[in-house]
Amino acid sequence: MNLLLIRHGETVDNLARRLAGVTDSALSPNGLIQAAKLGAHLISKDGENLTLTHIYSSDLQRAANTAGAILEAQSASIANGQKSLAALNGEDEGNGDNTSLEPAKHVLQLPDLREMNFGLREGAPYSQAHSPLPDFDPGRETTESMVARANQFLNQHLLPALVMVHMAPVTSGANVAIAVVSHGIFLQILRKQLMKHLRYLPDSRKVRWRNTGYFHLKFDPRTKWTDSRGLALWPYSIRGINVTTHLTEERAALEKQCCLD
Questions:
Q1: What pLDDT is attached to residue 37?
Q2: Where are the transmembrane segments (predicted)?
Q3: Which domain holds residue 71?
Q4: Number of other residues whose CB lies within 10 A of the CB of residue 172
Q5: Closest to 191 measured CA to CA, from 200, 199, 202
Q6: pLDDT tens sequence across 81-136
Q7: Cβ contacts of 161 within 8 Å, gap of 6 or more
Q8: Which residues are annotated as a binding site?
């Protein structure tokens, strides 16, 4: 089983080098191309032939439309017969759980996955990102608020989904995945909170996501536990950090705006 934490495609505000935060910035034409490339990549051999059973996204359009492109690529692959619904579920191996899996049919959009609210700096140029803060900015979101949102998403959505997918009988060779599409700053918070549930000490490396880059965790399917407390015992590996192989030549030329929204 795989977990992907994905940043949205390039936006018009990324191009203009403006802080977007909770501003509902649209994908640029290049961002739409990036999202389509990501969707095609994830279901390809280079992307490990993933079958996504759950797709979550922020409800801001840049993330929701990136997630939509991922869903569209998978749905088209199924419609064209390149992916088989029957191939996903295997025989119950005696774990007592008869849950069957299906490829995702929709994107679950959640406000909890939004980017940080920059308050008075919404729309400001990147050059002001680290300038002294105003004395009073009631709209600016605190780190504590983002941590609370991340934990709410983990407890209400992601951790139960991880357990359900991990416990379901899956055909040998099927490579199932859960995708979360969000924003550069919030993904750092979410990843840090997620790693606290895993068996090793939290990874202290700071991950920076480029547009449509993703952090890839893979869990060992041989170990089965029945609830989210078992995550602390699940062996896993980090398959990639800020994976952007689907962008090829864009990585150097077009992705220098990493990683503010």
A1: 97
A2: 172-190
A3: 2-253
A4: 8
A5: 202
A6: 766 555 566 544 444 445 678 999 999 999 999 999 999 999 999 988 888 877 78
A7: 53, 54, 178
A8: 7-14, 62
